[in-house]
Design brief:
Layout (H helix, E strand, L loop, with lengths): L3 H10 L1 H4 L9 H15 L8 H16 L1
Helix pairs in contact: 1-3
Length: 67
């Protein structure tokens, strides 16, 4: 089951995702690193997944945030 509270806490820890005043906010590589950290914390066995599945799960996660 997906832990919404954990996810929200992880996103709040990664300012490059949400803080427009953060110098890394417009850095795509920094955002990718931040989203990967969030995914590792939020998705069970994330590092064990195939790359295509990781990509799809991260895309879905980002989509749900911006919905």
């Amino acid at each position: 089951m997906f832990d919404n509270e954990l996810f929200i806490n992880e996103v709040s820890n990664e300012e490059s995702i949400w803080n427009i005043e953060n110098k890394l906010y417009h850095d795509k590589n920094a955002k990718h690193v931040s989203w990967t950290k969030v995914a590792r914390a939020s998705i069970a066995d994330f590092d064990e997944l195939e790359d295509i599945i990781k990509s799809k799960k991260m895309q879905m996660t980002i989509f749900l945030i911006h919905k």
